[in-house]
Specification:
CBS-domain, globular, Double Stranded RNA Binding Domain, alpha/beta, single chain, 390 residues, disordered C terminus
Length: 390
């Protein structure tokens, strides 16, 4: 199956100079969560509701050029499993489809996971057969700030809400929070600052409570709960998400949420149906990271293979990719890692800057992103073309 089979042309288009308030209006009218950003006819990237809430630049008059997210481009003949892989690793839920350097349409994650019933490797596969996170439960009495923090830490957009007896009473979603925030007739100054990466607005009028301090119970949507159990098939879970325009299904037992299956989990299941061939990659130091489980090392290896495939697309005929792993800090049980990527080409060597992070997967992402930028700058005249994930 190819991207063109699910490509659509109903997307929101905005200019980089437009304000957030105009963008929100367009998204609300079209019932969309993201928009494609242009500079005249040149596609720059996308902007999402999630990105707006996470950013500190939330003045109504702020131009959206400060919120642009550069995502991978695909073409109409890109294999749908490769599309799922790109979405899983980049975090993007919408990808532009380019044909002869012109925008042909977009592919959305809901349309991609909607194809699961047609993938023979996933037919009959149950939720219990894939990795999915335990449910983060939120109480009705919790503050909204706690919800938003979990949204960004766990990369999810919906959470189950429970009562004092841990029974499921409803859901709270990022979209509902966004619509509430931007519907308020309040001024916001440009001095608003994030706390630990999240929003704190200082310019609310005194009679308007801070968004972060509002109780979760004010945002609970009780009819918006869709549950399943471990024996539910992936095909059924995917159909439920697509039909009801939701990003997750709660796995419950005796009315108590136990875990969740998200679109990202389904994208990962699709990605894993395609065996990645690892060639011409030399990884040094990964086996010495004894604190990593065998499963995590396997995941890191697969992640490196994915980026190697992307580099092969950018450079036809590279010789070897060298990935050097090292840990150099420890805080309690956590370790900080550094990774350096070097690509040997037929006529030159391209070395990226050393990347570091407390999360090994994020460190891999940073290291490869840096070397990809250098490759694009070296071999492509347009340095914004296929700009790696940011």
């Amino acid at each position: 199956m190819k991207a063109k089979e699910v490509m659509r042309k109903d997307f929101v288009k905005v200019d980089r100079s437009q304000t957030i308030s105009k963008l929100i209006g367009k998204l609300k009218i079209k019932k969309q969560d993201s928009a494609l950003v242009f500079d005249n006819k040149k596609l720059l990237g996308i902007v999402t509701k999630r990105g707006m809430l996470k950013s500190k630049l939330l003045s109504d008059s702020e131009q959206i050029k400060n919120l642009i997210w550069h995502v991978p481009h695909i073409d109409p003949d890109t294999d749908i499993i490769d599309v799922a892989t790109l979405m899983f690793h980049s975090g993007a839920r919408i990808l532009p489809v380019m044909q002869k350097d012109k925008l042909a349409g977009v592919v959305k994650s809901s349309d991609v996971v909607g194809l699961i019933p047609k993938i023979k490797e996933l037919k009959g596969m149950k939720i219990s057969d894939i990795r999915h996170p335990r449910a983060k439960k939120i109480k009705e009495s919790d503050r909204l700030g706690k919800v938003i923090e979990i949204f960004f830490e766990e990369d999810i957009s919906r959470l189950p809400v429970v009562d004092a007896s841990s029974k499921l009473v409803g859901m709270v979603s990022l979209i509902d929070i966004m619509e509430y925030y931007f519907s308020q007739p309040i001024s916001r100054d440009k001095g608003s600052k994030p706390i630990q990466g999240h929003l704190q607005t200082k310019a609310y009028k005194p009679n308007n409570p801070n968004l972060m301090d509002l109780p979760v119970k004010d945002f609970v949507r009780r009819p918006d709960v869709f549950t399943a159990d471990e024996s539910t098939t992936l095909a059924r879970a995917a159909k439920t998400m697509v039909k009801n325009r939701i990003s997750s299904v709660v796995i419950s037992k005796m009315d108590e949420p136990k875990s969740m299956v998200t679109k990202r989990d389904l994208l990962e299941a699709m990605m894993n149906t395609k065996k990645q061939v690892i060639k011409n990659i030399q990884m040094v130091g990964l086996n010495e990271l004894e604190e990593l489980t065998p499963q995590m090392k396997a995941y890191v290896t697969k992640l490196c293979a994915f980026y190697a495939e992307k580099i092969a697309f950018l450079i036809s005929g590279y010789n070897t990719i060298h990935v050097h792993f090292k840990k150099y800090k420890k805080a309690g049980t956590s370790h900080k890692y550094s990774i350096n990527v070097k690509v040997e080409c037929p006529t030159s060597v391209i070395a990226g800057n050393r990347a570091s992070d407390w999360d090994i997967a994020r460190t891999v992402h940073k290291a490869f992103k840096d070397v990809e930028k250098r490759i694009i700058h070296r071999f492509h005249s347009d340095t914004t073309r296929d700009k790696p994930y940011e």
